[in-house]
Design goal:
With 746 residues, the protein is α/β, with parallel strands linked by helices. It is built from 28 helices and 15 strands. The radius of gyration is 46 Å and the shape is rod-shaped. It starts with 11 loop residues before the first helix and ends with a helix.
């Protein structure tokens, strides 16, 4: 998989943009539980009052708070509040906002930022708690007696109509400090957050004393927070849509590029490289394997980057809510990782086997489709059905094995997530009961825990998908990184002009890759323009191999092949093949029309050129019989026309090229003797200046050739004209007499 990363380079900017969007989406998703926590904690539980720092407070109430503040803290508070009385310019507007203030002066909070509010929260929160607690204690004689013992001052002796706070204000500072310390001890276990939360009750009471509508305050807070929550959700949705679009675009673009590159690489491979990859395997690599890469790239862009952000961010935010329950998340993650690693270790070998099994299924299918007539002729349908069934069952069994693992994994993962939710509720309820946590914080912690586990689930999905994609990536990279054995020279030569088409073999030897022995041994001959050079010999003697060396489908192992006295390894393959008209043993036609197949040799060929080529190839007659003529549709592989018609169209296609060199590799085998004779006669007249190479098993086809080369086990057994070989070459004579009578050979 990593071997294909370099092909993502054209999409680098889009990937960077996706990463930015993922950060935005992750932060938006992580912010939602926090907003929910605020709605529950501040909006519902605290009536919309978020801090222990009131926006407005009566001067008399502030005086009570000052009793329990240190001088420095008192100065900080005064620095951030402004006293408003009847003489203040803003008195009327303040009275409208706080109608119950009457003529009493009030302190208004200045315009300060959040950091100052966080500084003032503990400074004002604790005095608020002390004041409210002291009022509660004075109403309960038993609690007042207990506090009197701790502070050395008997609160129970204070008359009921006495202003206790005025009395405390007149007390020595030491005694007030003892009282404050004694009350602090009652809330020793409270943290700063819960202290603020408890002080909010007093702040809300102060707002009511000033005539504020606290119901509207609560509704306004919930509404504002809800709107922010919706906006954040909308931002996350927009990011998700853009990420999905861009990731799909990148995945599809990469798949398109890889298919193009694989196809181009396959086109550049020589026959030597084709021996390494079967046709079925190349089809699988170009289709199924690349589809696997496309899917994984989309998943990676959407999950692999997003999951760690959510995981790390979720941990940080969850611990900020409460650090006492970290072990619940840690336990769930450990169990989940153990499950993922177990599945990974079991599934990996199976994923590696899947692509090979798909190759096998494609191979069997392709052989059955291409050889259907042979299968029917020999009544081998039951055998082929069994062969296909075995390949199909092997693939199905492997896929079912993986599917069964997935069926088990998902319920287990859901069990872990639901179990974690129950554990958080159980432990969180005890924390709330002991005033160490707020309800909203527990709900937010639960959501963060789910986000963390979801992040690990995303990674688990990637771990499951990556092995198969890694195998597919390696298979694709193997093709892309295969360097053709036959390469163009760095500084190619040009053929001399005018080009004649003389071909000369000088001591050519050839050995197939991996073979132990040469199949051609010291082949030397010269083919001249205007002459026909024919090759004949027993099956496997090397006839087709020789002519396949001329267009460099294979590279010679030793010796050299010269065209117009230029070694063909010193010119480009394109320049060489532009001068050769080639008709292979198997006549390959492409889906389209007869005309499109003929123009395959030259797209700019005139209608007259097409007509001449079909006339020479003896194809004009059957083309004229077709209702649509040259526009007659040709099915894939030419299956809708006969073998002889396919051969004639293949020959006509080569003739359209009007090349100085023609190679006919056993291209007359499907023709009757009359058509064969007429074609060769027309070919001799219209290609009189070209160098012709004919590979055949028919003596009649090459009887009049200028030069006949007889091959036997990769060596030249004889060379000359028909009459010369009948006298001097026993191999040729034996082949000739097996086909024609003595009179016909004369």
């Amino acid at each position: 998989m990593t071997r294909l990363l370099k092909y993502l380079k054209p999409y680098l900017l889009q990937i960077i943009f996706i990463i930015i969007l993922l950060f935005i989406q992750a932060n938006a998703d992580l912010a939602l539980p926090d907003y929910l926590s605020k709605i529950v904690n501040f909006g519902i539980q605290q009536g919309g009052v978020e801090n222990a720092v009131p926006q407005a407070i009566r001067q008399s109430e502030m005086a009570r708070l000052f009793i329990f503040m240190k001088p420095d803290d008192k100065n900080v508070v005064l620095a951030n509040y402004t006293l408003v009385d009847q003489n203040s310019p803003s008195y009327e507007s303040v009275l409208e906002a706080y109608p119950a203030m009457g003529k009493q002066p009030i302190y208004l909070l200045n315009d300060i930022d959040q950091s100052v509010i966080e500084l003032l929260n503990p400074i004002m929160g604790k005095p608020f708690l002390i004041v409210s607690s002291l009022e509660t204690l004075m109403a309960d004689p038993d609690q007042a007696a207990g506090l009197s013992e701790k502070m050395g001052f008997d609160l129970t002796q204070i008359p009921a109509d006495t202003d206790v706070f005025a009395l405390l204000a007149s007390m020595p500072a030491l005694q007030r400090e003892q009282l404050s310390t004694a009350i602090d001890a009652q809330f020793a276990s409270l943290g700063e957050s819960l202290t603020t939360q408890m002080a909010v009750v007093s702040v809300k009471a102060e707002y009511e004393a000033l005539g504020m509508d606290t119901g509207e305050l609560q509704t306004g807070y919930i509404t504002r927070t809800g709107v922010f929550m919706l906006l954040v959700s909308l931002a996350a949705v927009i990011c998700m849509i853009l990420i999905g679009y861009l990731s799909a675009k990148i995945g599809s673009g990469l798949a398109r590029d890889l298919r193009t590159l694989v196809f181009q690489r396959v086109e550049s491979l020589s026959s030597t490289e084709f021996d390494r990859f079967s046709t079925a395997s190349l089809i699988t690599r170009t289709t199924n394997d690349i589809t696997q890469i496309q899917m994984v790239v989309i998943m990676m862009l959407r999950m692999v980057i997003y999951a760690p952000i959510i995981g790390v961010g979720g941990v940080i935010r969850a611990l900020s809510k409460t650090a006492s329950m970290w072990w619940l998340i840690a336990l769930a993650v450990v169990v989940l990782l153990g499950l993922i690693m177990t599945v990974f270790s079991i599934a990996l070998p199976k994923f590696k086997a899947i692509q090979g099994l798909i190759d096998r299924l494609n191979l069997v299918t392709r052989e059955n489709l291409s050889g259907m007539m042979v299968i029917r002729a020999f009544n081998m349908q039951p055998f082929e059905e069994q062969r296909f069934d075995k390949a199909n069952r092997d693939l199905t069994a492997t896929m079912l094995f993986i599917s069964r693992i997935m069926v088990i994994v998902m319920p287990l993962m859901m069990f872990i997530m639901n179990g974690l939710s129950l554990a958080i509720i159980w432990v969180g309820a005890h924390e709330i009961a002991q005033s160490r946590m707020q309800v909203g914080d527990m709900m937010a912690f639960m959501q963060y825990a789910m986000q963390i586990l979801t992040a690990f689930l995303m990674l688990a999905m990637m771990f499951i998908a990556l092995p198969r994609a890694a195998v597919s990536g390696d298979r694709i990279a193997d093709v892309l990184e295969t360097e053709p054995v036959i390469k163009d020279p760095q500084h190619p030569l040009d053929f001399p002009e005018p080009f004649k088409g003389t071909v000369e073999f000088r001591d050519v030897c050839f050995r197939y890759p991996g073979a132990e022995e040469d199949v051609l041994h010291e082949i030397s001959f010269k083919a001249l323009p205007g002459q026909t050079t024919a090759f004949i010999g027993t099956t496997g003697s090397g006839k087709s191999t020789i002519v396949n060396l001329i267009p460099r489908f294979y590279e010679v192992s030793d010796g050299e092949i010269l065209v117009d006295n230029v070694d063909i390894r010193k010119v480009t393959q394109k320049d060489l093949r532009d001068r050769i008209g080639y008709v292979p043993q198997k006549s390959n036609l492409f889906s389209g029309t007869i005309e499109s197949n003929l123009r395959y040799a030259d797209e700019q060929a005139s209608d007259e050129t097409l007509k001449n080529a079909t006339d020479i190839a003896q194809a004009s007659e059957f083309i004229a019989e077709k209702p649509e003529g040259l526009l007659t549709e040709i099915a894939q592989g030419g299956v809708n026309i006969s073998g002889g018609q396919k051969q004639r169209l293949a020959i006509a296609r080569a003739l359209v090229k009007q090349a100085p060199i023609y190679i006919f590799d056993d291209s007359f085998s499907a023709l009757d003797f009359k058509t064969d004779s007429a074609l060769r006669k027309a070919l001799k007249e219209h290609a009189s200046n070209s160098t012709l190479f004919i590979v055949t098993q028919r003596i009649a086809t090459i009887k009049n050739a200028n030069q006949i080369i007889v091959l036997d086990e990769g060596r030249i057994a004889g060379k000359g004209s028909h009459h010369e070989l009948m006298k001097s070459c026993a191999v040729y004579r034996e082949i000739a007499l097996s086909q024609l009578s003595q009179e016909e050979l004369a």
